[in-house]
Each structure stands twice: as structure tokens, then as C-alpha cells.
Amino acid sequence: xxxxxxxxxxxxxxxxxxxxxxxxxxxxxxxxxxxxxxxxxxxxxxxxxxxxxxxxxxxxxxxxxxxxxxx
Length: 71
Prior knowledge:
Blueprint: E1 2-6, H1 14-25, E2 30-34, E3 43-49, H2 57-60, E4 63-69
Parallel strand pairs: 1-2, 1-3, 3-4
């Protein structure tokens, strides 16, 4: 399973929690953390967390499932 997390702010406080979560789950799953929508290449699940811009369907449609969290 490939999970991608996009958070557009590299300075956002949530990043430390995301990195910890990815490290713990990364043993069983492929987890990618990115900070720019142009890096979205596709996968099973896309988490949009604290994004400061709208991510168009052209990017979201590369994933089987996606969800958005705002903080």
C-alpha cells in the first residue's frame, strides 16, 4: 500500500507528528511525505493535511482514495 501525505507548509508544527507517524507505519507500508502538489505521482491513499492551497482534481485523481484535514 502506498500512502502519500501532502502538507504544503514545511514549517507547520504538524510535520513533526506526521514524520513520527510515518516512521512507525513505514515498516509495513510505503509512506511518502511531500510539500508540493507537483510531486504527487499517485498511489492508494492521499492525505492532504494543512494545505494552504486548493489541490485540483488532476492531482487528487491519481489516488484511489483521498481525504483532507485542516488545522
